[in-house]
Structure formats: C-alpha cells, structure tokens
Amino acid sequence: MKIALAQTDQITGYNETLISGLELCKKAAKEKADLILFPEMFSTGYKFDEQTISGALASDSNYLNEFRKTAKEEKIAVCITFLEKKNDDLYNSALLIDKDGNDIIHYSKVHTCDFSSEKILKSGNSFFSAELKTENETVDTGIMICFDREFPESARVLMLKGAELILVPNACEMEENRTLQLKSRAFENSVAIAMTNYSGIPCKGRSMVISPEAFDANGISMNTVILEGDNSERIFYAEIDFIKIREYRRREVWGNSFRKISAYKILSEKVVIPDFEKR
Fold first, then answer.
1. Residues near 84 by Cβ (< 8 Å), separated by ≥ 6?
2. Rounded-to-integer distance, Cα 275 and Cα 126, Å
3. How many CA atoms are closer than 13 Å to the CA of 270, on its beta-carbon side?
4. What is the pLDDT of residue 269?
5. How far apart are CA 193 and CA 129, in angstroms?
6. Can you tell me the distance from the alpha carbon of 80 to that of 125, in angstroms, rounded to the nearest whole number?
7. Listing from the earlier edge strand, what are the strands of the sheet with 234-239?
8. Which among 36, 236, 240 is positioned nearest to 136, based on CA atoms?
9. pLDDT of residue 137
C-alpha cells in the first residue's frame, strides 16, 4: 500500500482548507497513492476561535461531500479530519473514505485534551477498525488522533478489533519522546502506523510511517521507521508491504499472542491515584 502524508502548514478558513485539501488529494492520486492522510482537524488548521466554532461541520456537509466526490473520482482513499458539530456538541473527528467515495470509519477523538482549548469538545467513546479496500491491497485499518497516541489502550483496542494499520492525524511537536511512543505502539501491537503532522511552528513536521517488523527471520533487530519527514510543507510518500507484516505477525510473539487478560481487570475500572488527582 502506498500512503501519502499531507504535511501542510496550518491554514485557516473552511474554503481555504477545502481548496488545498482537494488539490492535495489529486496530487497524491497522480502519484498512484492508495491513501492520503491529513493532520489533525485539517478543516480549521487546529483552531478554536469563535468564527471557526460557528462553522463546525456536520457529517453530511458539502465540505465533506467534496472529499467523498474526489475520492471516488480519483480512486484514492482519504482520511480527512475536521471540527464536527453534532446536535449541540463539538467533536474532533476523522472520516476515512474509500476509493469509491464510501465512509468506512467516522471516528471522534476519545482522549480529548481537556486541560487545553479542547475542553469545549465532547469525547468520542469508542475505537473502530474496518476493512479498507484499495486498488492494490485490502487492509484492516483504525484511527487514533494525536493525544490518543499517548495512551497504550488506544492502539491495543484497535489491534484487538483487527487493525493492521493505524492512522494518526496529529497536531503537536513530535519530539523524541512522542516518536518513541509511536514506535512502541507499532512494536507492542504488531501494527503499522502512519502519522501526519503539521509543518512549521509549533508542530515542526516529522510525519512518520512505522512498521512493526522489529526483527528479521533470523532474529536480527531492524529499524522499524519506514519514513520520517523533515519540517517542510509537502506530501511524503511511503510504501508498506502488508504481506511481509502478516508473515511477521504469524511468526513473532507480540500483539495478541500471549496476553494474560485475567491480570488486566483494573484497566476497565476507575482508579483514583491521589498524587495525580490533586492537579
């Protein structure tokens, strides 16, 4: 599968992001990409001012319909991100559209940043994996958005729901600790991960594609980073060989192979840790 990472500067205005986004989809399709992934909340340039909030999008909006139309016309899957309004609530959402213009996943960020401007948002309540069919490959795919990445449970649930590929729209600086998080999520769950970040200040790019293949068939360790971008505004392309990844998953011990679920019950309970609760 050939993936396009649309690493753009943050631009504002729904009309401006629509024009830019559709152009990027067409450029990626010309390069024979199977899928294009946008950064977090691309529709607004990750912004929460009054004008932006007043224009938040419904899932059947003309804005999103244009991406559905372009996906079908260009035969490319699109993961577009947006500030969503549903009833009276706001969500940080992503829509995965297949090459035929059909919605495959409609996901709202579970781990909203409630310590920041995202506190006005309502959190999603579930993670989803679905079969994404492209011209070259069919891959079970899931989505987690930015801060979701910092909770191991996000990727673990997606793996348990069948994901082979996790898409990560992002909008923060991917310094070394956060890039190590992505590598860990790929390694411990035996999934490929593709992350698109914004270029420029403050996010500084570094969009990435990571394989779970940490060891070859002889047990020799391997570099799992397929692609790591710089801070430039451009589309990055990477190819993922899912035949090799599936063989690796059958051969190796990570992911779901040797979990001891009877010891994990506390993970589904509300636990108060006094030192953290004081904040």
1. 56, 57, 58, 59, 90, 91, 92, 93, 108
2. 28
3. 1
4. 87
5. 13
6. 20
7. 103-108, 89-97, 77-86, 35-37, 2-7, 234-239
8. 240
9. 87
What is the three-state SS of the chain?
CEEEEEECCCCCCHHHHHHHHHHHHHHHHHCCCCEEECCCCCCCCCCCCHHHHHCCECCCCHHHHHHHHHHHHHCCEEEEEEEEEECCEEEEEEEEECCCCCEEEEEECCCCCCCCHHHHCCCCCCCCEEEEECCCCEEEEEECCHHHHHCHHHHHHHHHCCCCEEEEECCCCCCHHHHHHHHHHHHHHCCEEEEECCCCCCCCCCCEEECCCCECCCCCECCCEEEECCCCCEEEEEECCHHHHHHHHHHCCCCCCCCCHHHCHHHHCCCCCHHHHCC
On whether the CB atoms of residues 198 and 46 are closer than 8 A, the answer is: yes
This prediction's pTM: 0.95
Read off the tokens for 111: 């781990």
Q: Which residues of the chain have pLDDT under 70?
A: 275-279
| Residue type (1 letter), 94 | A
Q: In terms of Cα–Cα distance, which of 68, 75, 66 is closest to 97?
A: 68
Q: At what angle do helices 152-160 and 176-189 cross, to 10 degrees?
A: 30
CA distances from 174 to 118, 141, 206 (A): 19, 22, 6
Contact yes or no for 142/185 (Cβ under 8 A): no
Q: Are 41 and 83 in contact (CB under 8 A)?
A: yes
Report CA 275 to chain centroid distance, whole Å: 32
Class of domain 2-277: alpha beta
Task: Provide the pLDDT for residue 277.
Answer: 55
Radius of gyration of the chain from Cα atoms? 18
Is residue 107 within 8 A of residue 133, CB to CB? The reply is: no
